[in-house]
Amino acid sequence: QKLSVASSAPLEVAPQVSSKNSKPKPKIIILLDQATLETVKNRRGVYELLNCDDHRELCRKKLRKDPNDYRPDILHQELLALLDSPLNKAGLLQVYIHTQKHVLIELNPATRIPRTYKRFAGLMVQLLHKMKIKAGGESTTLLKVIKNPFSQHLPPGTRCYGFSSVGDLYSPVQLAKTLLPANPDDCTTPMCLVFGAMASGRITVDQHPYIEQMLSISEYPLSGAAALSRIMAGIEHLW
Q: Please, what's the largest Cα pairwise distance for the chain?
């Protein structure tokens, strides 16, 4: 029986920025943790991405869960902020997603995430059921489900930092100067930054024992996308 999933247009590969220097550049690893990516079958028998707007009564009555916790749009906003950044277009980011159901996803930096939430939701449903998404008309894999734990995908010697409103406070530029050398070619130690992709709660060292320090870039609670944009801008200012 053929699986019915919400439709999504084929993904495209974003054009790569050519570099005059052929030397491989170090990548900053980003983990978007505790994303709410779950599928549910609607009345027409089609699988959809569970979310607080379309499935509020289902969450309350059948799943007995708070519908406000199901915010996959937060992940969508964060991915747009990351993959649209000049840092990613220069080939300096590697993004992973970890869901609350412990599904680990790797993104190809050349992935062009759909702009609209509806197309994004259809894409995530396909990924969760098919385990990988390829570029339309090409053999390039853009998103794929990989094996846990996340720590096994980190290069040896990677320094990991978590972000929370209660972490040690830095300005974005000050943070970049503290964690990174002034020239990306001098960056020899891999670095991983862990951000939350959930509606409530925060990242903790108990969840990620490999995190050596919790950091913050604002005395105010920020949305994930706003925090990511500020941090990317701080690193871009340095590099």
A: 58
Between the two ends of the chain, the Cα-to-Cα distance in Å is: 52
In this prediction, residue 4 has a pLDDT band, given cuts at 50, 70 and 90, of low
- Give, in order, the Cα–Cα distances in Å from 129 to each of 36, 41, 62, 107, 144: 15, 12, 22, 16, 11
Residue 17: CB atoms within 10 A of its CB come to 10
Does the model's pTM come out above 0.70?
A: yes
Q: What is the pLDDT of residues 121-164, one digit of tens each?
A: 999 999 999 999 998 877 899 999 999 999 999 999 999 999 99
Q: Are residues 57 and 51 in contact, defined by beta-carbon separation less than 8 angstroms?
A: no
Closest by CA position to 105, among listed 81, 90, 123? 123
